[in-house]
Amino acid sequence: MVKLIVDLTLVLPEVFYMLSLKKITAVAVSCFILAGITAGCGNDDKASSVKVDPDSVMNYTAPEKDEEIIVMTVKDYGDIKIKLFPELCPKGVENFVTHAKDGYYDGLIFHRVIEDFMIQGGDPTGTGMGGESIWGEKFDGGVTPALYHFTGALAYANSGSTSTNGSQFYIVSGPDSYDDATAQQYTSAYSQKGIKVPQEAVDNYKKYGGAWHLDGLSGNYTVFGQVFDGLDIVEEISKTATDQSDRPQEDVVIEKVSVEKYDGEDVKFFLSDYE
Predict the structure, then answer these.
(1) Other beta carbons less than 10 A from residue 177's beta carbon
(2) Residue 29: what are its φ and ψ, rounded to 5°?
(3) In 10 A of CB 260, how many CB atoms?
(4) What is the strand order of the sheet 169-172 is part of?
(5) Residue 193 confidence (pLDDT) above 70
(6) pLDDT for the residue 62
(7) How far out from the chain centre does Cα 74 lie?
(8) pLDDT above 90: residue 209
(9) Residue 117, CA distances (Å) to 1, 39, 64, 83, 183 in order
(10) What would the mean pLDDT of 94-118 be, rounded to a whole number?
(11) Residues 196, 6: Cα–Cα separation, whole Å
């Protein structure tokens, strides 16, 4: 058995319907539906021409100088800097970047926080039931096989399908690593469906942690970015005290989300980089 968790609280469209690494333990991997992995993100015609090596793992690709990045300033915590993947997820990146430039996320809160799992925000109502895309309706961000739910991954929260993405997002906060037994469960779950997991992905989950069951075991969440500075802040926020609905007891406020040019500073993808 893998120490996994399922958040069985049911959801309206913008509530984050996904597995939770806190609520239920010892859940068999066979209980999950393993969705097929598609190359490219969603029904976006821009993505159709992108060729993705099924063995590639691109989360830890450093941004290039002057490349657009996201800087998320959290009150009393500091800046979280995020690498984006517009070539792999053009529609998902376009939605987030446009919202950021419009000031959509400024002043919102992380309304759902689960230690060793994720921090979730992007809802103007602060309830988990609000928000919309730049197109005024849900959109399909799809799934790309080259981007995984490693610790620090940025992805869209939705109601259980990539076709219900809106404005809400989450950043994976752990667990920090996996043991050999959990890694074996990971590869076995995929192999039973005829899907080969790149050894690099297995090694990264073992060493750096994340939420691997949100990749192919659900196949319903669009990863489109990776924290390269401020991962220690994500970790700190994930440990904040919460109520029974995983809402922080004191508001964790996103003061501003801005789109800036990467200036060539050092990247720090891993928690060990902050020691």
Answers:
(1) 16
(2) -60, -30
(3) 14
(4) 110-114, 118-121, 169-172, 153-156, 223-229, 78-84, 68-74, 254-261
(5) yes
(6) 97
(7) 17
(8) yes
(9) 18, 26, 29, 20, 17
(10) 98
(11) 24
